[in-house]
Amino acid sequence: MGSTSDVNRRDVIKRAAALGLVAVPGMTALSACASGSDDSGDDKVDKGKKTDENPLGVNKEAGAEVVIFNGGYGDQYAKDAHKVYEKSYGKVKHASTQKIRTKMQPRMVKGNPPDVINNSGAENMDIASLIEDKQVADLEALLDAPSLFDSSKTVREMLLPGVVEKGTFGGDKLYQLNYSYTVYGTWYSQTALDKLEVEYPKTWDEMLAVCAKAKKEGMAGWTYAGKHPYYFAFTMYPFIAKIGGADVLKAIDNLEPDAWKHEAVKKAFDAYYELRAKGYILKGTPGIDHIQSQTQWTKGNALFLPNGSWVENEARKTTPKDFKMTVAPPTGLDKSDAMPFETLWAEASEPFMVPAKAKNVEGGMEWLRVMMGKESTQNFTKLVSALTCVKGAADGVELPSGLSSAKAALDAAGENIVSPRLPDWYLQLHKEKVGGAIAAMMAGDIKPDEAVKRCQKAADDLSGDDSIKKYKR
């Protein structure tokens, strides 16, 4: 291999280790190839002149490269935003994929990433590790720029509550912009409930009764993404908070000793296990993915589905016209719950980042500014049935059934909104360890007590690993 690049081998190896591309004992193979990269991040485009119309100083001649996660929201909204961007700046090179980690991590390691990455989906990269390794640009300049939605305010002033907090990691700078505002909960067809002549269950006894009635009619009570069991967290985490209070989730996020052994966790696990024990889970669910589970649900084979508000767009092709897609907060346990029934998990989601070694960092930020303008935010909501992180962006927009119910649930929750940080701070713990324990429990392979033990052990192991940065809230 030729040494045509000035990429520092140790930096490449360090980045690869942080990104999980290579284990420490196997670094020799990577270091042998490290100097063969043609892109080191040193060929950045020249900055443009800052003006009132160009507050970020974007080079008007330089192009930008944007990579979008082609999941529940598709990528048309991004293509439409490109057209707005290109009115003032250079051509946007567009790519979309469901394999963000597979496609993007090698480019992050080599130092030639795109200017914007929609770091989402089952293959999202570990943002906390990337930030720790200085691979992500902070977005403070973007936050302080004038908003394209309301020019009298900054981008920061136009963001919904919690958006900035969600994008910060152990400091006061924003590194990740979560564009969509997602409501997580239990999704169902109002038409199906009406046919069963039941109301949405507010207590667990009511949930079991509804599932029993559905079973008699040949319909399963629940299905879920068995291959991606962290989907269960969308109802499980707020259920735990509802039972024991928001501080239980805070203790879990903070990796406090015995946090997973809290009685609220045990009660929540026991309740969900009862769904499996009574045969209320659709047969074959542990082996299906999110798309398959959603399709079984829209076909009417299962009544309830744990999911986020992107599901209305993602499942659009298989959803009957009279389905009346609806979301509700997770069913509570009983009258002893610490938080009201309306409590749910809602937060800014669908993360975007600008890599620090991107060729056109300013262009990447400007593209995100375009995305938060009136034209792009309203287009996003109309196209994909989802709210954005910008205040008032959905005002005057006709909302479909699912999104309308999500907005209503959000309004009803008021201050009773929880937003666990475990998925951002400790991705592997959340997806593989906790998700794996819940998956094994819901498949009937282990009992709730064992699932709790596995979650606690995984949290303790991570807490004791000095190589992983810890966060607190």
From TrEMBL:
<dbReference type="InterPro" id="IPR006311">
    <property type="entry name" value="TAT_signal"/>
</dbReference>
<dbReference type="InterPro" id="IPR050490">
    <property type="entry name" value="Bact_solute-bd_prot1"/>
</dbReference>
<feature type="compositionally biased region" description="Basic and acidic residues">
    <location>
        <begin position="42"/>
        <end position="53"/>
    </location>
</feature>
<keyword id="KW-0732">Signal</keyword>
<comment type="similarity">
    <text>Belongs to the bacterial solute-binding protein 1 family.</text>
</comment>
<dbReference type="Pfam" id="PF13416">
    <property type="entry name" value="SBP_bac_8"/>
</dbReference>
<dbReference type="InterPro" id="IPR022386">
    <property type="entry name" value="Chitin_NgcE"/>
</dbReference>
<feature type="region of interest" description="Disordered">
    <location>
        <begin position="96"/>
        <end position="119"/>
    </location>
</feature>
<feature type="region of interest" description="Disordered">
    <location>
        <begin position="34"/>
        <end position="57"/>
    </location>
</feature>
<dbReference type="InterPro" id="IPR006059">
    <property type="entry name" value="SBP"/>
</dbReference>
<keyword id="KW-0813">Transport</keyword>
<protein>
    <submittedName>
        <fullName>N-acetylglucosamine/diacetylchitobiose ABC transporter substrate-binding protein</fullName>
    </submittedName>
</protein>
